[in-house]
Amino acid sequence: MVREESIDVNPTPPSEIAIIVEVVSPGSELPDRKDKPGEYAQAGIPVFWRIETRGALALVAHELVGADYLEHAPVTDTFGTRQPWPLQIDVPDLARVGPRR
């Protein structure tokens, strides 16, 4: 998700990225958990969420503090945050496919 003022800038500079969300897939566990957080932190991206798909679906939030991410505990029910904007996410709903009725 990029900041509104950068919507038409291509490629988007990392300084204009408000949040990155990674979905951990079989075969990408190591890069998604170990490599990518360091790359995103080095780029200065303030918020990084990792969606864990093995076992119970979980959202793991990371907040940039200095040069590194502070990793928060996995959330498997309702995730609430004020960063990068106030919102709540029903984590189990992330697994639902198709339109809501």
UniProtKB/TrEMBL annotation:
Residues 12-72 form the Putative restriction endonuclease domain. Gene3D superfamilies: tt1808, chain A (3.90.1570.10). Coiled coil: none annotated. SUPFAM superfamilies: Restriction endonuclease-like. Keywords: Endonuclease, Hydrolase, Nuclease. The keyword Hydrolase applies. The keyword Transmembrane helix does not apply. GO terms for molecular function: endonuclease activity. This is Putative restriction endonuclease. It comes from Actinopolymorpha cephalotaxi.
